[in-house]
Amino acid sequence: QPENNVARVSMQALAAVLGGCQSLHTNGKDEAWALPSEDAALLALRTQQIIAHETGVTDTVDPLGGSYFVESMTNQLEAAAYDYFRRIDDMGGVMAALESGFLQREIADASYIYQMEEDRKERITVGVNEHCTDDALEIPLLRVDREGERRQVDRLNEIRRTRDNRDVAEKLRALEQAAKGSDNLMPPLVEAVKSYATLGEMMDVMRGVFGEYQPSWGF
Length: 219
Prior knowledge:
Layout: H1 4-18, H2 38-54, H3 68-91, H4 94-100, H5 102-119, H6 146-162, H7 165-180, H8 186-194, H9 199-210
């Protein structure tokens, strides 16, 4: 029941604003299936605008300030976050936690627990495990026009044909040398872009130096 996501996103967005968020994204109602359709993306934007202009919630810096319940939850969240920081520090830092698979396992475990709670109906999701219907759903999904892809390929081929390819090769070699050393990679990347090197070409250079990330952990 994708229409239910409109109500969900509205409440999630309002909760984020009440919590003092500095930046906000609202998902389209169909984003779990595909890229959002134009109508869904516009409705998600209108959700933000309604909250901003029609609720009055932005008239106060901290609408929930002083709420004992919010303060209690904030304290619990802060304590749990610092507990994670300590555990990660004890492991030797974030890189060690990544390499050991700790962070990945924590995310996977949280996802598994959430799904089990939903399957056992300990966590109700309306339209998923409660208040469901047997009606077959027709969800109009966004279909990307392949003509746009063809136009971009043609444009890329034209750039490769008309650019100074010797200059491109020189800038890519400079990028490779910087990657092999300890220099800041941003300046050679900018120079490569100015010479019309493609993103793929620049990434190929860095992939050749650094290789590809291969996780050394398992669940």
